[in-house]
Write a structure and sequence with these properties.
single chain, 157 residues, alpha+beta, Ribosomal Protein L22, Chain A, 3-stranded antiparallel β-sheet, 7 helices, 28% strand, ribosomal protein, Large ribosomal subunit protein uL22, Ribosomal_uL22, RNA-binding, rRNA binding
Length: 157
């Protein structure tokens, strides 16, 4: 019985250790940038998001810069923000050598502002002004390649 109490740690200590482990894990790996309550319909924003999904960051920036659709300037700004977040997370690495790409991008529906527009013969039609939330995740191709190589070597041995 004495051994069981000696090995048991307090719940607060375990929670703190788990929290610290999560923070350390968050320092490496993909970087997330979010855009919330963009006053554009999700369908219009998804058309632009589909263009850059899976592309390298430089190519994605060029696509967004010259794309005439309404959501492209906002996504361009979001991508630049994600790159800056990556720079803050990986201060010792160089951006040119990192070979970043858009790992995931998804557009979810946001709030809807519901308005009434007058219609003929005393009726009213409902107008739904849609908004969306965009989540962009970028990651480095170099790191992924290194992980794959180490896993292949381990399986051969």
């Amino acid at each position: 019985m004495a051994e069981a109490t000696a090995k048991k740690t307090k719940r607060s200590v375990v929670k703190r250790e788990k929290r610290d482990a999560r923070k350390e894990a968050a320092k490496t790996g993909p970087v997330v940038a979010k855009l919330v309550n963009v006053p554009t319909s999700p369908r219009k924003m998804r058309l632009v998001a589909d263009l850059i999904r899976g592309e390298r960051v430089n190519k994605a920036l060029n696509i967004l810069k010259y794309e005439p659709k309404v959501g492209s300037p906002k996504l361009e700004k979001l991508l630049l923000s994600a790159i800056a977040n990556w720079g803050n997370k990986n201060q010792d690495a160089k951006l040119e050598e990192a070979d970043l790409y858009v790992k995931e991008i998804f557009v979810d529906g946001g709030r809807q502002l519901k308005r009434l527009r007058p219609a003929p013969q005393g009726r009213a039609h409902r107008i739904r002004k849609r908004s969306n939330h965009v989540t962009l995740i970028i990651d480095s191709l170099k790191k992924i390649g290194a992980e794959v190589v180490t896993e292949e070597k381990e399986t051969k041995e």
